[in-house]
Specification:
This protein is an alpha+beta fold. The chain has a single domain, classed as Peptide deformylase (Peptide Deformylase, Alpha-Beta Complex), CATH 3.90.45. Helices cover 29% and strands 31% of the residues. It is globular, with a radius of gyration of 16 Å. The two termini are 25 Å apart.
Length: 164
């Protein structure tokens, strides 16, 4: 699976809900396995469907020391008022890192790879990665969360790299 990078139109589109999770379990198992492989190759911690050109509401997360997780048709139910700033990067925006402010904790509902619904309350890095990947399903990149001056500097840097 190739990972799309900033500038690709699909990264700016909203993903559609996944249908027939259980009926098409073999197909989804292969897609999920491929997503985890692409995640490992890219040395990332999360990967969303739109990043590989799959315009469906699915993302995978694997933080070192934690269980690999699959989120299908996720809904963010709650976010904390308390926020934190942390440096983020993205496989679709290679070589760019910037501080992003996000809620410290969240409550999310989704379906797993077996088509079973679950609800997860989490905080810290897992909450941040989930919010980052959820943004991809909405056509939002982490650079969109930066202040206008910072975003402009990042976009200028990306443009210079593209010319080189």
């Amino acid at each position: 699976m190739d990972i799309l990078t900033v500038g690709h139109d699909l990264l700016r589109q909203k993903a559609a809900p996944v249908e027939n999770i259980k009926k098409e379990s073999r197909k989804w198992a292969e897609i999920i396995q491929g997503m985890f492989e692409a995640l490992r190759k890219g040395k990332g911690v999360g990967l969303a469907g739109p990043q590989i050109g799959l315009m469906q509401q699915i993302f995978v997360v694997h933080i070192e020391g934690d269980t690999p997780r699959v989120f299908i048709n996720p809904s963010i139910l709650e976010t904390s008022q308390e926020t934190s700033k942390y440096e983020e990067g993205c496989l679709s925006v290679p070589g760019i890192w910037a501080d992003v402010i996000r809620p410290k904790s969240i409550k999310i509902q989704a379906w797993n790879e077996n088509g079973r619904a679950f609800t997860l309350e989490t905080s810290g890095i897992l909450a941040r990665v989930i919010l980052h990947e959820y943004d991809h399903l909405e056509g939002v990149l982490f650079i969109d969360r930066l202040s206008e001056p910072k975003r402009k500097r990042v976009l200028d840097k990306i443009a210079k790299r593209a010319k080189a």
